[in-house]
Amino acid sequence: MRLGALGLVYAFLITGCRPIDEVVARTSSPSNSPTSIATVAPSVTRPAVDFVMQEYPVTRGQGPHDVAPARDGGVWYTAQLSGELGWLDPRFGMLKAIKLGAGSAPHGVIVGPDGAPWITDGGLNAIVRVDPVTNEVKRFPLPADRPYANLNTATFDRDGLLWFTGQQGVFGRLDPKSGAMAVFDAPRGPGPYGIATCPDGNVYFASLAGSYVGRIVRETGGAVVLVPPTAGQGARRVWCDSKSRVWMSEWNAGRLARYDGAGWKEWTLPGHGPEPYAVFVDDADVVWVTEWDANALVRFDPATETFVVRPHPAANANVRQLLGRHGEVWGAMSGQDKLVVARPAG
Q: 0.85 cut: is pTM over it?
C-alpha cells in the first residue's frame, strides 16, 4: 500500500495554531535528597518549536500497539487487532503486513541483536520472531503450566538473552539460540508491564498493578523490589539513560520518576490529571513521554527540568509505546490506526 502523501506533518506555535505552554518544574526539596519529589512551578513560558511530529496512516482496523525502528530504515509495528506484524517505509509510505497465526494478538515488538523483530504475543502466549528478509514466522510458546501470561514487553540483555513480562504476574527468559525458556513468578503478583536493559547490564521491569520497579537477578530469576516514594503510583513503562539511571512513567500518579541507584526523584507532568503511559530516553538523554489525558507527546529535558507538551491534532491518538533511533522518536497511535514520529524542528 502506498500513501497518497508522506504523512501529515504538524508543529505548534505557528500562526493559527494554539500555542502549548512549557511548564518549568523545580524540585521542592534539596537536590541531594534521594527521595526528593519535583513539583510543577507556576512559572510558564512559551518556547520556540524544538520538535515537529509527522503521522503515517496504516491499514484501518490493525490497531497498532508498539513500534520498533528497523535496521533498513523502516519501522516495525504490532497490529494487535488484526494479528499481524506491520512494517512502514516512511520514505515512500509503503506498508506490508505479516500474519502471525490464528489467535494472534501481538503486544510488544523490539529489534534483536540479529536484526530481526521479536514480538510478545498475548494471543499466542508466545514469543515470536519474524525473519526480516524471508518473513518466516517462528514461535516460542510459553510452558504448558503458564497457559495465559498476558505477555507485554521484551528486552535483550548484554548476553543476548531475551527477557519478557506478563501482566498475569510473571517475567521470563528465552535463549534464542537453544530455545530454552524459563518463566518466574514476579513479586507481589500481577502487574509486570514495561521492561528495559540498562548500559550497566541490569534489567528492570515496571509493575503496573504492583506499583514498583523490579531489578531482575538474572542468575537466579529473582527480582529486587524498588518502591518509588509515591504509593500506588502505577509504574507502567521503564527506560534507561546513558548513565544507567532508570526512568519510569507513573500512570496513576501523573508523574515521571527516576531511580539512580541511591534513591528516587519524581516530577509531576503539566496539565490537569495527566496520565503518562510510555517513557523513552533518546541518545541525548532527553526523556519522552506519551500523555493520554492531554492527548500529547511530552519532551522532558533533565538538564533544565522543563517539559514541552505537543498535542496531536485529532482526539484519541492513544500512543501506547515509544522507541527511537538517532533524530527520531516513534510511537503507535492505537486510537487512530497511525504511526507518529517526532523529529527536531528544521
A: yes
